[in-house]
Amino acid sequence: MVMTQAANRQILIVEDDEDTAEYVSTLLNQAGYNTVAVDRGEVALYAIANGDTDLVLLDVILPEIHGVEVLKQVGSLSFLPMFVLSGYGRERDKVTALEAGADDYMAKPFSSEELVARVAALLRRIDWTPQPETKLVVRQLELDIPRRQAFIRGERLRLTPIEYGLLATIMRHAGQVVTHDHLLQVVWGDNYQGDYSVLRVNISRLRQKIEQNPRHPTYIMTVPGQGYRMPTSSRY
What we know:
The strands form three sheets. The chain has a five-stranded parallel beta sheet with strand order 2-1-3-4-5, sandwiched between helices. It has a four-stranded antiparallel beta sheet with strand order 6-7-8-9, covered by helices on one side. It has a three-stranded antiparallel beta sheet with strand order 10-12-11. The protein has two domains: 124 residues, 3-Layer(aba) Sandwich (Rossmann fold), CATH 3.40.50; 95 residues, Winged helix-like DNA-binding domain superfamily/Winged helix DNA-binding domain (Arc Repressor Mutant, subunit A, Orthogonal Bundle). Helix content is 41%, strand content 20%. The protein has eight helices and twelve strands. It is an alpha/beta fold.
């Protein structure tokens, strides 16, 4: 089924296995996306820097430049959504990719329907703008909703679409506990229920950007066994 949001979306597939690249490209084309496939990390970095890419679908095992290094380099330069599709299914490999900057991770072999659904969910993070708010403010943290910009103590934060979605959701419920499953459903979608590692790693990345001491957070606090809470006061 062609998704209405897919029109004009350009997806860069970085995969050195020709059969896999062709299969994924065909799958996404059938869903309405435009695709370009490359087989090396350095070619991918050039395409990202010089093209009009909306999302990167990346294998981590690549010739010359490892996929994790591609993640790090892209993350330092842009907010482009990065989706890792890897032959490694271990939890440690998934966490490594997420910590390096991946917004999502799927292991091969994969469900074609789930892959398309997750790509669509990740792209929705780019378009999603909560209404009717124009601004969210919690202490020294501020979100400019129309511009999709975040500031801490007056300094602009560089957030990925996933990090922005997490922060907006938690700020909207400031003073309350936001459960793990609610965050997964709102920010990632229904296919992610119970996938707490992707949530945990992105919360950690977000804390690195907004907390003065990420080991002792004062903005995004863990509520064991439940979720996260953002205090409305610095005294909690």
